[in-house]
Amino acid sequence: MAQVSLSVSTVKPLSDRVLIKVGESEEKTPGGILLPDTAKEKPQVGEVVAVGAGKWNEDASRQPMQVKVGEKVLYSKYAGTDIKIGTEDYVLLSEKDILATLT
User: Fold this and answer.
1) pLDDT band at 2; cut points 50, 70, 90
2) Which of 16, 20, 33, 81 is most buried, judged by most C-beta within 10 A?
3) Is 92 exposed, middle or buried (0-12, 13-18, 19+ CB in 10 A)?
4) In Å, what is the CA distance from 71 to each residue of 11, 28, 46?
5) Whose CA is closest to 55, among 94, 101, 19, 20?
6) CA torsion, ordered 86, 66, 62, 8, to nearest 10 deg
7) What is the pLDDT of residues 4-59, one digit of tens each?
8) CB 75 within 8 A of CB 98
């Protein structure tokens, strides 16, 4: 999947989309072996940075979002669009691609 690079200061998701700051990938294995960049897996955990207003229902009302800014979440491995803003990595995905909130 291609990564989009943006030179903007803010991104406001629309509808039921969520912008997540990607967590750091593991630098070494539990046994202590250092991993090269090519062997690192894409992280599936991140922090919610921005949320859309919610999905429209058939009766023209909005369905409230289940996640809030600041929550840590687990999301599907191949979901969303990878975005790079400055030096930070983000992923923009639908709320349905979020599997769980982490405490």
Assistant:
1) low
2) 20
3) buried
4) 17, 26, 8
5) 94
6) 0
7) 777 777 889 999 999 999 987 666 677 777 777 676 677 789 999 999 999 999 99
8) yes
pLDDT of residue 25: 65
> CB within 8 A of 12, min separation 6: which ones?
50, 52
Tell me the pLDDT band of 102, cut-offs 50, 70 and 90: very high
Query: Pairing relation of β-strands 3-6 and 81-85?
Result: parallel
Asked if 48 and 67 count as a contact pair (C-beta separation under 8 A), the reply is yes
How many beta carbons lie within 10 A of that of residue 27, not counting itself?
8
